[in-house]
């Protein structure tokens, strides 16, 4: 394919060289003449493993050249990769100035080219927040081209997952390829661009592709911060943190796995809250600052408060809650977020009915009974014996259980507002209904 790559920084330079190495005909575009001259001389404008040899080879064969002329690049290509920087503004917001400028320049060049060059596909590889492409860049393209994105112009978002220092290796052996496609034809172009590379390909809506890069980087930062904080606590307590982490990493069932990584409701139970509090307390006693660990429980509480706010937003007063124990298949109510949710709603004066098939006040014993009598002493009058009893009562239903009897009874369309805390199996279909509110989106 004939490809133009806008921006010859780390991402653009590596993308241009690697695509040329795959057999594509690539034109690199940059405003910096020094970078342009270096590339045309077969030299890398960035320091990166293997990039020097690769650029020398693809420039020698004629597969890669560079220019500062946007019109020349557009005329000589059928697909454009936008790899310009999106730095932070002083207040932390995303700077989209370079993205807007390049998009405008591409649009002007495409308008000059007209229909003679066929349909051109613009692929945004720069990191940008969800909504940037559809709400900011697509309107710019359409304004200057005078056509419709997805019809007259192809548009896609293709985030990169390249690590500086190993980016050439990462390009040819990616963990995944993500293609946010405005329309199937745009996605087909990007898919063809990377044909032959290993790894799973995900073709998703444009905003999803934009968000994935942030999910990755936020989690990577969280992992590093978690390991460093735990290491600091272990050191203060005289424990070898690397031995601890070796065992931690060996657990592929719960620790290094998809477990616990699906958005849903708050966590609770007799272990996680208690152990987090103990660990943070031990760190403070040892004068070790652990801001990540110290904010896990407050973050959990904030997520619970979001459920309360969803109910408040409805303006309705009769509420049904399905689920009470801290997780399915148990009657353990200790530090259950659903108990806390019931307590907050009851305290705010909501007319509440609760059903949990595993919870019967007459069967609660010991610490479990003592806990509920302390936190929700009016539980007996709030518990309903059947799903139907709650549905007949409620104007708003909070779903905190996957009990098949509850899921089967939930109405569609007319009926109570559904506040989904777990992402129901039919959540995609329900999302279009006016009476559905999903916390797990």
From TrEMBL:
Entry EC no(s): 1.1.1.132
Family, as annotated: Belongs to the UDP-glucose/GDP-mannose dehydrogenase family.
This protein's name: GDP-mannose 6-dehydrogenase
NCBIfam families registered for this protein in UniProt: NDP-sugDHase (TIGR03026)
Statement: the UniProt record of this protein carries the keyword Cell inner membrane: no
Pathway assignment: Glycan biosynthesis; alginate biosynthesis
Pfam families with a match to the protein in the record: UDPG_MGDP_dh, UDPG_MGDP_dh_C, UDPG_MGDP_dh_N
Keywords: Alginate biosynthesis, NAD, Oxidoreductase
Domain UDP-glucose/GDP-mannose dehydrogenase C-terminal, first and last residues per copy: 320-427
Native source species: Streptomyces asiaticus subsp. ignotus
InterPro entries: 6-PGluconate_DH-like_C_sf, GDPman_DH, NAD(P)-bd_dom_sf, UDP-Glc/GDP-Man, UDP-Glc/GDP-Man_DH_C, UDP-Glc/GDP-Man_DH_C_sf, UDP-Glc/GDP-Man_DH_dimer, UDP-Glc/GDP-Man_DH_N
């Amino acid at each position: 394919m004939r490809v133009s790559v806008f921006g010859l920084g780390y991402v653009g330079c590596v993308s241009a060289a690697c695509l040329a190495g795959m057999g594509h005909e690539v034109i690199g575009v940059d405003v910096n003449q020094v970078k342009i001259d270096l590339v045309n001389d077969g030299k890398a404008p960035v320091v990166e493993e293997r990039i020097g040899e690769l650029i020398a080879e693809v420039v020698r064969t004629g597969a890669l050249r560079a220019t500062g002329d946007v019109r020349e690049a557009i005329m000589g290509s059928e697909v454009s990769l936008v790899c310009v920087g999106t730095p932070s503004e002083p207040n932390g917001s995303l700077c989209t100035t370079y993205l807007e400028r390049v998009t405008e320049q591409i649009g002007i060049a495409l308008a000059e080219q007209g229909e003679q060059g066929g349909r051109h596909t613009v692929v945004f590889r720069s990191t940008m927040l969800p909504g940037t492409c559809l709400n900011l860049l697509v309107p710019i393209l359409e304004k200057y081209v005078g056509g419709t994105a997805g019809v007259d112009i192809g548009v896609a978002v293709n985030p990169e997952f390249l690590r500086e220092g190993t980016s050439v290796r990462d390009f040819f052996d990616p963990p995944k390829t993500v293609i946010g496609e405005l329309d199937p034809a745009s996605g087909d172009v990007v898919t063809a661009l990377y044909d032959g590379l290993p790894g799973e390909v995900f073709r998703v809506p444009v905003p999803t592709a934009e968000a994935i890069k942030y999910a990755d980087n936020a989690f990577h930062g969280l992992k590093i911060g978690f390991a460093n904080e735990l290491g600091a606590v272990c050191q203060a307590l005289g424990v070898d943190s690397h031995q601890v982490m070796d065992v931690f990493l060996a657990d592929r069932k719960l620790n290094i796995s998809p477990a616990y990584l699906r958005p849903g409701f708050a966590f609770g139970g007799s272990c996680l809250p208690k152990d987090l509090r103990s660990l943070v307390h031990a760190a403070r006693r040892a004068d070790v600052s652990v801001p990540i660990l110290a904010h896990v429980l407050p973050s959990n509480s904030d997520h619970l408060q979001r459920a309360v706010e969803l109910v408040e937003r409805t303006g309705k007063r009769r509420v049904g809650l399905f689920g009470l124990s801290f997780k399915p298949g148990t009657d353990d109510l200790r530090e259950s977020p659903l108990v806390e949710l019931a307590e907050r709603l009851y305290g705010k004066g909501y007319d509440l009915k609760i059903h949990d098939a595993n919870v019967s006040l007459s069967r609660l014993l010991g610490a479990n009974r003592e806990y509920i009598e302390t936190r929700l002493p009016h539980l007996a009058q709030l518990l309903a014996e059947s799903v139907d009893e709650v549905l007949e009562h409620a104007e708003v239903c909070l779903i905190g259980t996957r009990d098949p009897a509850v899921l089967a009874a939930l109405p569609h369309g007319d009926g109570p507002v559904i506040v989904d805390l777990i992402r129901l199996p039919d959540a995609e279909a329900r999302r279009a209904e006016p009476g559905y509110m999903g916390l797990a989106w």
